[in-house]
Amino acid sequence: MDMIMTMDEQGKKVTVTQRIKGIVTKINEIDEIKVLKEIMDSAQEMDQGINQQ
C-alpha cells in the first residue's frame, strides 16, 4: 500500500510518503471480536473526529 499525506501547519507544508508491504496470516483463525455497546454507541466516523482537538 502506498500512502501520501500532506499536512499544512501555520503556512508550512510537509509531505510524508509511506510504502507499506505486509503479509496477513492466520486470518481465518481469529475468534469473534466483541465490542461493548457503550463503545459502539459513542463511536464516530473517522472523518468526523479527526480535526477536533
Please give a quick description of this structure.
The chain has helices at residues 37-42, 46-49; strands spanning 2-9, 12-19.
Report on the architecture of this protein.
The chain is of the alpha+beta class. It is built from 2 helices and 2 strands. It has helices spanning 37-42, 46-49; strands at residues 2-9, 12-19. The model has no long low-confidence stretch (mean pLDDT 86).
Biggest sheet: strands side by side, in what order?
Answer: 1-2
Q: Hey, roughly how much beta strand do the residues contain?
A: 25-35%
Largest sheet: 2 strands, antiparallel
Return residue spans where pLDDT drops below 50 for at least 5 consecutive residues: none
Distance between the termini: 28 Å
What letter string, H or E per element, gives the SSE order?
EEHH
Radius of gyration from CA coordinates:
17 Å
Structural class: alpha+beta
Mean pLDDT: 86
- Number of distinct helices: 2
